[in-house]
Design brief:
The protein is of the alpha+beta class. The protein is 40% helix and 18% strand. The structure holds flavin-adenine dinucleotide.
């Protein structure tokens, strides 16, 4: 067990895990976030037999609206109360401390694989049998690994394909497959100097990516293919198989928050062959949409589509929740689209993808990512009766009778009209609106000047990338 105060970050807890040989077996990639933040939004990593971080919580001390410190423990609470408190979005009060159940875990072997997208997902020429074979191949990898992370960075073989005389389609791109296996092998890259060098490279990778996206790609979206035709392959500069201590394998990308991104993510159940097919269709919906947008001269997906796979959660408000009686057999895919925060066509793209993804049976939005326009209203329904159970246990616990800890957005998402405060809406919404207006006014003048200044540079980059791509044909 590890008891941490609410403000302990995911990085703060790493030394304890390394010294004790115990670990939080699955966690977010970030190492800068707090356990209170991660637990309270049911954040997750990847792990076929692991839940969300909220599922490792065994007790919490929460200071309620009457300033009383209340202890909620798995041993003493009834099941519904604990399932509510595990992920409570801050609505039960201020978390003072959290006790997590850690597990003794072996080391983790992490492998990078780069496989053509068409190996796992349908292309326009596939018949039903071919599609089924591809899905079976993907399931075999996911179900046979301790954890899997799947990325598609769009256009990563764009120039290579064009240079070979073929037309680019998303199927021509490579997928980046990170596969984790528990192992008793010795750590391969554990020396502090090696770790410091890798972390330093990652810092520059993130800062440079953020700079290029903000200052070049957002102004010239059609350069995104050039960027990823080259940039994607820098991943191959890092070791392709590493045996690591578990916390290092999980928090593998340092300084990830130096690259400002926007994202939208949903969890969908993976229970039947049909639900796997629905997951696969969610993926190809996005690849086709990106191809269509590209044909129209737009590039709204400037970073990646990502999928991670978990066992279901016991937390009532976790997007990957499943009831006790079926939980061991129900897994979920968390599927996410991510773009640079400066991507001009992102909002419309996100909303269009959301409309398709949220139509998948059992789909629920991940709390800690963006909510598409108008999506808040459908949240309570997507959780079935869980939101009502959550509110009933919260009321019975008597932690916040005046709804001090429910802001207007949460009141909308949790269907709590009684908690909406008119004054709060004015105060909270006014400042961002004024700020956005000011930024827009300044932005119009500077964007035109910047566009002129970067056009020449952009062409130089494009030519260099083309030369590099021709040199690196597969
Ligand atoms: C680059 C990047 C990568 C990310 N990767 C992942 C990922 O791999 N997986 C994933 O699931 N998410 C991921 N996220 C989302 C991130 O983990 C969540 O947004 C997380 O909640 C942030 O934690 P925080 O400490 O900043 O908490 P905050 O954003 O400050 O808070 C999150 C929630 O917890 C509540 N809260 C925080 N502290 C307390 C407290 N002491 N008492 C009561 N309530 C509290 C807040 O009210 C809020 O509801 C990522 C985000 C970024 C920017």
């Amino acid at each position: 067990m590890a008891a941490s105060t609410a403000g302990v970050t995911t990085a703060d807890l790493i030394p304890l895990q390394l010294e004790s040989g115990l670990a939080v077996p699955s966690n977010v990639i970030l190492d800068t976030v707090t356990y209170a933040g991660v637990v309270n939004a049911a954040c997750h990593g990847t792990g076929w037999t692991e839940g969300t971080v909220s599922d490792y919580v065994v007790a919490m001390t929460i200071v309620d609206a009457d300033s009383v410190a209340r202890v909620f423990s798995k041993d003493t609470c009834d099941a519904d109360t604990f399932a509510a408190v595990q992920c409570n979005l801050g609505t039960w009060g201020v978390i003072y401390d959290i006790t997590l159940q850690l597990r003794p875990v072996a080391n983790m072997a992490v492998e990078n694989h780069f496989r053509p997208q068409g190996d796992f997902f349908a292309t326009s020429t596939d018949d039903t049998v071919a599609v089924e074979k591809k899905l079976a191949r993907l399931r075999h990898v996911i179900e046979g690994s301790t954890g899997t992370e799947l990325f598609w960075m769009p256009f990563n073989r764009y120039y290579q394909t064009v240079a070979a005389g073929d037309a680019w389609t998303p199927a021509a791109d490579d997928l980046w497959l990170r596969v984790f296996h528990n192992t008793t092998e010795e750590v391969t890259h554990g020396a502090p100097t090696v770790r410091a060098a890798l972390t330093g490279m990652q810092r520059w990778q993130m800062l440079l990516s953020d700079f290029i996206h903000r200052n070049i790609l957002s102004v010239h979206p059609m350069l995104v293919p050039a960027f990823y035709s080259l940039g994607f392959h820098t991943i191959k500069l890092f070791p392709q198989r590493m045996v690591e201590r578990v916390p290092h394998a999980i928090h593998y990308q340092a300084h990830i928050d130096a690259f400002k991104v926007v994202s939208f993510e949903v969890a969908v159940p993976l229970t039947t062959t049909d639900s796997w097919a629905a997951f696969s269709a969610m993926w190809t919906t996005v690849t086709s949409r990106v191809a269509a947008e590209h044909a129209d001269g737009r590039c709204p997906l400037t970073l990646a589509m990502e999928a991670r796979f978990v066992r279901s959660s016991s937390a009532l408000l976790a997007p990957s929740y499943a009831p006790d009686e079926v939980r061991p057999d129900v897994h979920h895919a968390y599927v996410e689209i991510l773009s640079s925060a400066s991507t001009p066509d992102w909002p419309a793209f996100r909303d269009a993808v959301a409309a398709e993804w949220l139509a998948v049976p059992g789909a629920r939005i991940h709390w800690s990512k963006q909510f598409p326009t108008g999506a808040t209203a459908g949240v309570a329904a997507s959780f079935g009766g869980n939101v009502e159970r959550f509110k009933a246990t919260r009321a019975a616990a008597g932690v916040d009778a005046p709804n001090m800890f429910v802001n207007n957005w949460l009141a909308g998402a949790l269907a709590m009209p009684e908690a909406i405060r008119a004054t709060g809406a004015v105060r909270r919404d006014g400042a961002p609106v004024a700020l956005a207006r000011m930024q827009a006014e300044r932005g119009v003048a500077s964007a035109a000047a910047w566009r002129r200044a970067t056009t020449l540079f952009a062409w130089v980059v494009a030519v260099l990338v083309l030369v590099a791509a021709l040199a690196g044909r597969r």
